Amino acid sequence: MQNLNGIFYYKKYNIKNVYLNVSVNFSGVVRRKNIEIANFEILMLYCIL
User: Fold this and answer.
1) Residue 10 belongs to some domain of the structure
2) Does the pLDDT of residue 1 top 70, yes or no?
3) What is the DSSP annotation of 3-48?
4) Is residue 29 part of a domain?
5) pTM for this one?
6) What is the residue range of 46's domain?
7) Residue 7 within a domain
């Protein structure tokens, strides 16, 4: 039983770390994409005007 708890805890901890890494990377990508999209929208507005 103790061993199972250890494995479960380890997996949960690992998943949490992976999730944190992914979310940090993803937020960086999203921020970069949002900036690109914002610049693109500004360009589109200039083209329309």
Assistant:
1) no
2) no
3) HHHHHHHHHHHHHHHHHHHHHHHHHHHHHHHHHHHHHHHHHHHHHH
4) yes
5) 0.35
6) 20-49
7) no
